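Sample pair:
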Amino acid sequence: MRYYIIAGEASGDLHASNLMKAFKEQDAQADFRYWGGDLMKEQGGTLVRHYKDTAVMGLWDVLTNLNSIKKNFKLCQEDILDYQPDVLILVDYAGFNLRMAKFAHRHNVLVYYYISPKIWAWNQKRVKKIKATVDRMFTILPFETKFFEEHGVEVQYSGNPVLDAIANRDNKDESFEDFVARNQLDNRPKVALLAGSRKGEISYNLPDMLEMVDKFPEFQFVIAGAPSFAVEEYQPFIKDKDVAVVSGQTYQLLQQARAALVTSGTATLETALLNCPQVVCYKMWGGGFTDFVAKKILIKVPYISLVNLILDKEAVLELFQKDFSLNKLERELDLLLQDSPRRNEMLADYDELHRRMGGPGSSARTASLMLEALKKDQMHA
């Protein structure tokens, strides 16, 4: 089979790469062409564009990058037609991928969507576009599956690929002493900083996270370097603060950290599944205006983190836009770093999260379901 895959950020690159690996194990003729990142590239095939060259965040970034966004749309459309894939597999990245779904459907290319865009959280009208242009949806969260079923979309739940990535991580049995020695860190307990994978996220969130460094000198703060960022690119934010950067080892850092400050997204779920207490910090362009628009107009769910959405409660504190303050962040982090009731309550909630999420094997199940669906869809084409 010929697979054209589009992933637009670090988490998509990770999960698409695991899906590609599973395809290779089940389809000896698998051929890949894709938009993604380094992890997908490791699986072979042809990388057309790297996500670090295409990702934009927020309204302002979109407005100032309209020309390059249009060029990327055109390049992708032409490339899909030239490649003539058996299926186009879209991985999250709704702004770009829903446009590609419409284009591909118009040109009779099968469209499968893996890892749903979060339309259940905002702009639920987009489900009509999905129903009209996506042949099959493969979801990774139970509440997503129910949402799409209720709207008449062809949908299957295949488990969550984060569980696969965590189960297959390197150095999962490593001791704290070996971790710090290997990364030339000191022996203080660690606070992990996960400030996002995109420039906009990092520039809006990392400076506030770094304000905590001087508040807790007995801990070493360590930035989980994003795959698309070089270590030296963090230096303008760090300046003279006592902060380390560890790249390509987010899971290894989280399993050793006492607590973490995390931007919203898949990272909140990964942090919880690695049993690291966390505070969710998310700021973006627009301040109070963006907060008003998000909460009153756009966001249709009560939480912004996957942990809280899955548990249907505020298990982890969410500091979003105008709710964010350095005092709140310091107070919550202090509780999580101690052996406090708050820390123990969060860890108990993580136990329930593990129970609801189940075990690994999602990538192989998804590949199997897609291959089975492809045979049926090609027969009826």
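Confidence is low (pLDDT under 50) at residues 285-299.
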